[in-house]
Amino acid sequence: MRDYYDALNDLLSNAVVTQAIEEVALEQAVGRVLAKDLVVQYPAPQFDNSAMDGYAVNDMQRQQWEVIGTIAAGDESAQFDLKPGQAVRIFTGAGIPNNCDSVIQQELVERDGDTISIAEAFPAGKNIRYIGEELQKGEILFNAQRLITPAAIGLLASQGYASVPCFAKLKVTVFSTGDELTLLGQPLAINQIYDSNRPMLLSFLRAYSFLEISSGGSIEDDPETLKAHITKAAETQDILVFTGGASVGEKDFLKQALAQLGEIEHWKLAIKPGKPFGWGKVGTHTKVFLLPGNPVAGYATTLLLALPAMKRISGISIDKAKPFSFKAKADFAIPNNKSIRRDFRRGLLRNDEQGVWVELLKTQDSHMLSGISYGDVLVEIPPEEDVQQGQLLNVYPLAGALN
């Protein structure tokens, strides 16, 4: 069996990044993947301006000045050439007048007619935002292979970008497989279950703007039917995701069908949940992920493996494609841990004055959806390693749980 980190690094290092690029209007670009480096078009700030409401003054050896005018944001500052002993009323964001030595915030100033004074000496160069102190024209504003965030939208807009080059969205279709599945809204027959994996994964993946997600429906356990659906979907889709049929049982025909149509690497991962996992290709370019049929295992392998690979294929850098995790203190202990598999258990977070703690939920079996529904994180338990109360462990946020 392969260790999780070995499998993840293999997936990401061998993923082929999409080459299709399209220009996307800035207002529509949040969550998309930047395809080219973008440069600073204008220095930031673009001109010297005031960081405060107050008074722009000349000659800091004084404590009293004559007010000769007012400058608001958008006014032309060049109309004022301050002489020693002169000042102008100025507002936040307004351009600094010529020969300004400092801006004194208004709460420190007493004004009597056209004369202002301060009780104590004030230093030079205060409360002025100088041209280019944040960004210099021609520097790299954003490197390619990053997600465009709402904050990045604001910065791009401040630089005059009306559109940005993005990698094209990956077309992803999600299938569920198994004769035991019944569609939602239909009565359950004996030994049937509702198809929960596909709605779960569809909603999970639709949260990512760089993916174009569609449902392939539920496919019965029949080799020819499976091959027909795979062949048709591969004509238009970049990625096919299958839940169920990733094991090696006599009725798991999916792996056989995919192997006949393309190249499939079938892994047995040393993780729990999610031991059976497959990755490969059908047709000329369509990537395939085979997920376990147990819902928690399907969710976990999507979060920990399939989604990171999709991020990389979408153009995101390897470092940013890796699943996000942080450390939390174990509010539990696991003595005599003999498991040879890396265990990703479901946990709840809490904060106190001693930091962030994680406790384990009682519902830990791979068929128990309540664990990932009620939990905040997956808690990584290293193989064959005891866990002590208060020990720092890696935790992986579950989609939407910490929003």
Enumerate the strands of the largest sheet in spatial order, edge to edge or round the barrel. 7-4-6-5-9-8
Using only C-alpha atoms, the radius of gyration works out to 30 Å
According to DSSP, the number of beta strands is 26
Sheet with the most strands, sense and barrel status: 6 strands, mixed
Mean pLDDT: 91
Strand content: 25-35%
Distance between the termini: 35 Å
User: Helix segment count?
Assistant: 8
Derived structural class: alpha/beta
Helix coverage percent? 10-25%
pLDDT below 50 for ≥5 consecutive residues: which ranges? none
Shape: elongated
Q: How would you explain this protein's 3D organization?
A:
This protein is an alpha/beta fold and 403 residues long. It contains eight helices and 26 strands. The strands form seven sheets. A six-stranded mixed sheet has the order 7-4-6-5-9-8, with no helix packed on it. Helix 1 (4-14) runs parallel beside helix 6 (295-313) and helix 4 packs across helix 5. The two termini are 35 Å apart. The model has no long low-confidence stretch (mean pLDDT 91).
